[in-house]
Design a protein that fits this description.
Blueprint lengths: L27 E11 L2 E10 L3 E2 L10 E6 L10 E8 L4 E5 L4 E3 L7 E9 L4 E4 L4 E3 L4 E10 L4 E9 L13 E10 L2 E11 L15 E8 L4 H14 L3 E7 L4 E8 L2 H20 L10
Parallel strand pairs: 1-5, 4-6, 5-8, 6-9, 7-10, 8-11, 9-12, 11-13
Antiparallel strand pairs: 1-2, 3-4, 12-15, 13-14, 15-17, 16-17
Amino acid sequence: MRSSPGSATSSSSNPLRTSVDPARVGRDGALALRFERRGPATVVSACRSTLPLQVLAPVALEDPAAVVSVLNPTGGLVGGDRLLIEVDAREGAHAVLTTPSASRVYRAPGEPTEQAVRLRLGPRAIVEWVPDHTIPYAGSAFRQTFDIVLDDGAALILLDAFAAGRIARDEAWRFRLLESAVSVRDRRGWVLRDRFVLGAGREAAGLGLAEGHDYFASLVVVADRGLDAFAGSARPLLAGAEGATGGVGLLPRRGAVVRCLASSAPALTDLLDALWAAARRDILGLPALALRKL
């Protein structure tokens, strides 16, 4: 599969145009991507970005998807940053979006870092959102939202993974705020609404906190087929994972959710790679994609 990056465009009606307020700490970053199916391939037909967000050129792999890496060249997120990522996958397109490494959220004495991700999937489109995990530093504040709309026949695989902080520096659970919300809709209405909020000065040494695991993740799968097979594959993976645990459940319609806890970053990565491979096989009928070998 070969993907072309498409040409960047600008417009006076650009919805991603950002305003400059010299009194505010932080930056407004935006990224808009459009994927289209052209013959047997998916291409990036439009791309627009403003720092601190960038996107690398699509990578040609032995896979039908266009594989794109979202990059923050500033090295991390600071308090007051406001990021908007918009992805439009047109009819029949298949996009995989990832990151080169874990995302770092630095200490924020004032406003939190905010990131909004909007995914629009056309008929029979596929989007796999599979970034590395997020690391919230001590004193950081991070708020994230996913707003996802799927058309008929579309499929979604979405990973949302976190460390409890810089574990090697004994900063586990010392962030000021960590919040993530996922909303998924289709033509029939809501498929999933999920949200967690952690922090607000709570002590992290309480009884049973994450059962001693400093890494946690959710995997959301939405599709019209293969969900029972995926849940059946996920259960033994979760039961047999070394240094990790979790559970899987089917949504009332069209979806499944996996929750994971892990004692280390390698344990988290190994389990999520296995679950992603199972979702690709059972939902999409595709083999695993070895992004970490790039």
